[in-house]
Amino acid sequence: MLEAAELERKANWIRNEIVEMTVGLAGAHLAPSFSCTELLVALYHGGVLRFNPEDEQWKGRDRFVLSKGQACLALYPALADLGFFPVGELRSFCKLGSRLGAHAESNVPGVEAFTGSLGHGLSIAAGMALCAKMDGDDYITVALLGDGECQEGSVWEAVMFAAHQRLDNLVAIIDRNTLQAIDFTEEALALEPLEAKFEAFGWEVRTADGHSFDSIQAALADIRDRSSGKPLAVLARTTKGKGVSFMESKPIWHYRTPNREELEQARKELAR
Amino acid sequence: MRDAFFVSLYETVARDERVVVLTSDTGALVLDALRRDLPQRCINVGIAEENMIGVAAGLAMSGKIVYTYAIVPFVTMRCYEQVRVDVCCQNLPVKMIGVGAGMDYSILGPTHHGTEDIAMMRQLPGMTVLSPSDNRTAATFAFMAYETPGPVYVRLDRTGEPLIHTNTVEDLSAGASVLSTGTDLCIIATGRMVATALDAAKLLSEQSISVGVVDLYRIKPLNAELLSDVINGSKNVITLEEHFITGGIGSAIAELIAERGLNCRFKRVGMPDQFVREYGSREYLRATIGLSVDNITNRLASWVGALAEQVSR
Questions:
Q1: With contacts defined as CB-CB under 8 Å, which chain A residues touch B56?
Q2: Strand runs labelled E in B193-264
Q3: Backbone angles phi, psi at A5, to 5 degrees
Q4: CATH 3.40.50.970 fits B2-156, yes or no
Q5: How many domains does chain A have?
């Protein structure tokens, strides 16, 4: 587990890497990746998840499902940094023949599930958590969902299922950046009161500042020791595009890459 | 056929503790026994098929072999994207078991008819598509689905009698069985339409039309060599299925004939390109759309007659 300052440095490195990985691409999910960067760093570098880059299929590993598969732009640098695959490979992102595409690809070492179509990941994670219960295994399953993704009906099928099956070894983190592809969530299809919805569906709900390592780690501190019978939802308040001022909370940046001036500005803002 | 399948599946579940059965609130007599005896591994996930397939994928990614069960449209169309992405893209051992081939659930109407499933499921890369014709093939396929790596779809009917495959040691790994041979016409049929084909063949033989029947019980992957030999040995080939005419076995065989340049007269017989919005018994509904034994006998007799006339002209 790394110290807070070191985690901050990792998050900043990932953001810089994301910018460089997407230079020259016609479009990319920078902003949705920036909003969950700290969440991923907390999970992988902050001591929340159990894993082994030397043995990526280790049976005792925790399962992490990136349900918002478009944020693989942030996941890939985190995994490469931990040694799942070479850091040098990151710059092949979306280039000819690369195994690193714009959605989470399960052929990439460390990536548990093939995602990108929204509303799938929580069901898959629930299946993994159910399997742990069946087999008496003690691994934890964590799914990271976008907030806009929660408009998919299948998410709520999974929410009901996980509560009914008493999957207290399952954690769903919602990246609550309040934006979806072309609108704010509350303008397109309102999610609020989201906390009350999860509670009504039988989940334990916690909120966190999704850019504060202290806050994220506090929300996830006891996930290995929970025995409430309830799955846990962590609503992480985040800012879409976090870290680059002109991308923050602007719908247009859901799937856009910076032009030359914007690129320089982004590099400047992320230089530390 | 459904019960024969589940009796066989019960044995598979009992033998291998990796096997899990999920149902989206769809029952069967023998499923009740599974739920009673092995409740940890036979779960009613509720009326939520998208989640059922996602959960099945998660279980399969963690080492389980998962059967998912519902009426045909709900285990194929309702959750098609989960089947495509979660199961097929990751080539997972998830077995989709649909009951209610064609108009098996006649009075329940098109919401519950299985009329596009062959087209949809054979479209998916890596999917094996099995279509039993009787109780014996259904029982065999419960185990074959387990033994076959990756995703499998099994298209069940509720009824599986009379038996078509009476030979208990018949090897069903070929994917198709030549049940009889004829000199005038060959019917390639699937599911319970194989029984209809055999009945029609008998009636046609009374009109001195010699008809062979092939049971195509593995629709994907097709046994292209065996089917090519059958087609090459026949002047006139008919496909017969209780499925919309578009995309089913008729289309699969047409693709084979076209791509291999096989020389035959060819006709697809199946459900016309429209929903059946009438109600009544399955036999009644079949008769309204030209799929009763009598309809088919007459259609084939006139087709063979017309072809013979063309040739003599």
A1: 127
A2: 211-216, 218-220, 236-244
A3: -65, -40
A4: yes
A5: 1
- Predicted structure pTM score: 0.97
Where exactly are the structural domains of chain B? 2-156, 176-312
Query: Per the structure block, which two tokens stand in for A164?
Result: 């009914």
| Tens of pLDDT, residues A7-43 | 999 999 999 999 999 999 999 999 999 999 999 999 9
Q: Which among A63, A116, A127 has CB closest to B56? A: A127
B2-156 and B176-312 share one CATH topology? yes
Q: In angstroms, rounded to a whole number, what is the distance separating the alpha carbons of residues B207 and B210?
A: 9
User: Which CATH fold topology does B176-312 show?
Assistant: Rossmann fold (3.40.50)
Q: What CATH number corresponds to the domain at position A132?
A: 3.40.50.970
Structural domain containing residue A34? 4-270
From the list B40, B48, B60, the residue facing A157 with the nearest CB is B48
Give the model confidence (pLDDT) of B174-207 as tens digits.
Answer: 999 999 999 999 999 999 999 999 999 999 999 9
Determine the length of chain A: 272
Contact pairs from chain A to chain B, CB under 8 Å: 93
Prediction ipTM score:
0.97
**Residues of chain B that touch chain A, judged by Cβ-Cβ distance less than 8 Å:** 20, 40-41, 45-46, 48, 50-51, 53-64, 81-82, 85-86, 89-90
**Rounded distance between C-alpha atoms, residue A159 and residue A229, angstroms:** 14
